[in-house]
Amino acid sequence: MLKKQSVTDLVRADLEGKRVFVRVDFNVPFENGQISDDSRISEALPTINYLCENGAKVILASHLGRPKGIDDSLRLTPVAKRLAELVQFPVQKADECVGSAVESQVSGLASGSILLLENVRFHKEEEANDPAFAKQLASLADLFVLDAFGTAHRAHASTAGIAHYIPAYAGLLVKKEIEFLDNAISNPKRPFVAIIGGSKVSSKIDVLRKLLSVVDTLIIGGGMTFTFVKAQGGKIGNSLCEDSKIGEALQFLEDAKKLSKKVIFPTDEVITQDFSNESPSQIVNVHNIPDGWGGMDIGPDSIELFNDVINGAGTVLWNGPVGVFEMDNFSKGTFAIAKTLANSSAITIVGGGDSASAIRKANLSEHFSHISTGGGASLEFLEGKELPGIQALKDK
Ligand code: AMP
Fold this sequence. Notes:
Helix content: 25-40%
Strand content: 15-25%
Bound molecules: adenosine monophosphate
Largest sheet: 6 strands, parallel
Structural class: alpha/beta
Number of helices: 15
CATH topology of the largest domain: Rossmann fold
Strand order of the largest sheet: 5-6-4-1-7-8
């Protein structure tokens, strides 16, 4: 449960004519100068529509990319254009996010209309969570709404800093994200299966440890596999491995045994000699990878094994690809899992990032119960960390 107030705790009388500063995550991908996926914009629409329908003056702020100072290629102008096509309310765009020109645009804003500010990361004060900058942003509005789940784990001026100066509420996307993730770990329909892939043990060990106490079965795949295999005495050739994490990997497996939790690894692996899509491959036992070869994707037996576990699950949480899915020849395992999950009757929750992009690439998004918009944020939430952006909101 979200223990914070959300926009739906505000009724028309609280919102009509009020200036509401909404931090959204419009950090959309571009291909050849065009927005290639506008899902981050559409995910924010429920909050924007709710505010406009209730007569608020909506001021939107977002980051885009990683600018170092003002960068014309990272202006939010194309985003404003796309937003205007998606909402029924008037949309204006500002060329800045603070300053007198923005202030006068805000004072001319009509109820039920939208002003999109310029990329907040054009100011280094944003990521530094500079109090003066946060105060300047806050001075534009009467209320603050956080709807950028993807940046909720960062204490920036427009995500957490601003909440010190004006009353702060969760947006509908943030509310939905927290409720799905929280429900999965505190009250899952069982059996609860988590599939954790990705490259490194070091970035996932905290979430693995946390999940161990709540799941029934844990499936581990991807580059992380080989540190665990080596820890158990297997031959991994030149597969990805973090030797410094072997001790932690062994400890993790012992803890799992003590808790009688099933931890399942790939049994077979597609291997190559070079880390390239064109490199010839073969399929071998994951504990017996020859010298000079490295694991790139799970093999057919592992796909079958993982599918069987998924098909018996009540809830599945998935974070991280099980192979180098960016290379077509080694994306089979990740897409097979995406397909099985899409066809499963379980509650299926995806923790954003690469697994979410694989699902979108396969056009399977609508077959999932929830796909998080924040890879890093959902991981930190699942680890049990408090997200600074959420912490700063008004308590219920
Ligand atoms: P993460 O950001 O930790 O979720 O890791 C995602 C990355 O893991 C992707 O870029 C994958 O290419 C990579 N990955 C998955 N499986 C392997 C593997 N067997 N070897 C190397 N990298 C992998």
